[in-house]
C-alpha cells in the first residue's frame, strides 16, 4: 500500500471511530488504537504536506461531533494530548504561573447554565460551536444541583460520568430491565438472579463467541444458531463502557432503568464574585454552592505535590490510578490556574494553549 492510500484510509477509519464515540458513546476501537492512527496521520501530513488529516488534528471532536440547537457563548474545545513527559515539560515551560491537575474523565462533556439560582440549560459540547439540548432529560445528577444560592448568571462546564461502583449498578439495572422484557416473551422457570446474570455477562466477555453461554428456557446453555432468536445474551445487555452508559442515559429519558450519574466541573464562566482570576478559587466558590469539581477528585497527596513538583504530581496521580480510583480516567489534565494568563496564552482551532491532557500507558 502506498503512503497516500494508507493516509486516506487511516483518516476514514479514525472518522468512523470518532463519530461513533462522540455521537453515541460507542467504542469501535480503543483509545490506544485511535492514538496510533492519528499519530500516523499527523506524521504523514507533516512529511508530505497533505491537509486532509486536519479534520482529525485541528477540529473539536475530530470534526465528528454532532452540533445542535444550543449555541455556546464561548466555544467548547477539545484538549491537546501529551504522550510523553517531554511534551508535558514543553507545555509547562510556556506557563509562568501555577498549574492545576485534574483527572481526564471518561464521560460526556456538557455545559450547564444557571440563572437566578436555577439550572435552566444543559447542552453537550457537540461540534464546539453548538451542542445538543439535554435540559429536559436532566433529572438527578450527583454534583449538579437543580438550584443554587447564587443569582447571577453562571455557566459550569464539566463531565458527566459514572463512578466505578455506580457503573456496576447501572449495568445490573439495565440487565434486570432487559431480562424482564425477555421473560415476558419467553417462559423462564427457575430464573437466575441479577447477580448470576451479571456474573455470566462478565465471564462471557472473556470467552470466544462459541464458548459463551446464554439463557434459553430454564438454564444457561451454549446456544446453537437455531436458538439465537429466543436466547438471552447477558453480555449484550450490560454497558460496554462508562461513556456509552452516560450517552445512553442522557439521551434516553424513557429507558426504564436507572443509571446513576455524577458531574464534575472543569471550567467556570460567569459574572459577579465567582469570576476571580484564580481557577482554583472559582472552583472553591462553586463547590460551596453544591457543584462537584474535578479538582476535588484529585487525591490530597497529589494536590499538595502539584505546587512543589508538577511532574512528580503527574507520576503520583498515575500511581493512584493504578492503585484504584472510583471514577473512569486514563490520564491527567494540566491547566494554567490564572485566567489572565489563559487569555495571554490563547487558543488554537481545536484546543486551548493553556491546557494539555497527559495520557498514561494502557
Describe the structure.
With 362 residues, the chain is α+β, with helices and mostly antiparallel strands. The chain folds into three domains: 3-63, Helix Hairpins; 70-118 and 145-161 and 261-359, 2-Layer Sandwich (D-amino Acid Aminotransferase, Chain A, domain 1); 165-236, no CATH class. It has eleven helices and twelve strands. The protein has a four-stranded mixed beta sheet with strand order 2-12-11-3. Strands 5-4-7-10 form a four-stranded antiparallel beta sheet. It has a two-stranded antiparallel sheet with strand order 1-6. A hairpin with a 2-residue loop joins strand 8 and strand 9 (219-221). It is globular. The model is unreliable at 220-228 (pLDDT under 50).
Question: Which helices and strands, and how do they pair?
Answer:
Blueprint: H1 3-24, H2 31-48, H3 54-57, E1 70-71, E2 81-82, H4 85-92, E3 99-105, E4 108-115, E5 118-124, E6 130-131, E7 154-161, H5 164-185, H6 194-204, E8 214-216, E9 219-221, H7 242-251, E10 262-270, H8 279-288, H9 300-305, H10 310-323, E11 329-336, H11 339-345, E12 355-359
Parallel strand pairs: 2-12
Antiparallel strand pairs: 1-6, 3-11, 4-5, 4-7, 7-10, 8-9, 11-12
Helix pairs in contact: 1-2, 5-6
Shape: globular
Distance between the ends? 29 Å
Count of DSSP H/I helices? 11
Oligomer: single chain
Helix content: 25-40%
Strand content: 15-25%
Largest sheet: 4 strands, mixed
- Helix-strand string: HHHEEHEEEEEHHEEHEHHHEHE
What's the number of domains?
A: 3
- Please state the second-level CATH architecture of the largest domain: 2-Layer Sandwich
The named CATH superfamily of the largest domain:
DNA ligase/mRNA capping enzyme
Provide the residue-averaged pLDDT.
84
- Strand runs, count: 12
Q: What's the CATH first level of the largest domain?
A: Alpha Beta
Radius of gyration: 22 Å
Give the low-pLDDT segments. 220-228
Structural class: alpha+beta
Largest beta sheet: strand ordering:
2-12-11-3
What name is given to the CATH topology of the largest domain?
A: D-amino Acid Aminotransferase, Chain A, domain 1
